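Hi support team,

I submitted a single chain yesterday and got back a structure, but I'm not sure I'm reading the token output correctly. Could someone confirm the output below corresponds to the sequence I sent? I've pasted both exactly as they appear in my results page.

Thanks,
R.
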Amino acid sequence: MSDDLAGLAALVCEERDVRAICELKYRYLRTLDSKDWDGFEQCFVPEATADYNGLVFDDRAALVAYMRENLGEGLVTLHQAHHPEIEVAGDTATGRWYLYDRVIVEAVSFMLEGGAFYTDRYVRTPDGWRVAHTGYRRTFEATYNLSDLPGFKLTGPGG
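Hi R., thanks for writing in. Yes, this is the structure output for that exact sequence:
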């Protein structure tokens, strides 16, 4: 194979990996917001770690248990990650994402919205790419008392 074809093949493989990692991140966000804890767990390797602005987890089991216990009924979340910067190096990769999130707890008249930068590490497994580490540092966080927002009404399956 010529050097040009080898370079093109490597580029195609890297683009496939970047797409797969993007899909993994989107699945992570979707399963988190839809409270699909089995699907959320499958986004990670068992030894995965996390650090959400100082909220630290040493493995997948602790992370999933925390989310399952603290993001239950009556708590609506929205997580959107944008502008991926992904670098693949063989069977490992790193990623940066800009996060916009919102948390609504109508029962206590509370809403939070914020921004952050995620920094992730990924590893290729026999089942595809998985998260080895995830975490973010906040750029801002704003909180609201819903009673200060006249006319606020939450509808939908989460509300």
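A quick pointer for reading it: The beta strands are 44-52, 55-57, 76-89, 92-105, 110-125, 128-145. Let us know if anything else looks off.

Best,
Support desk
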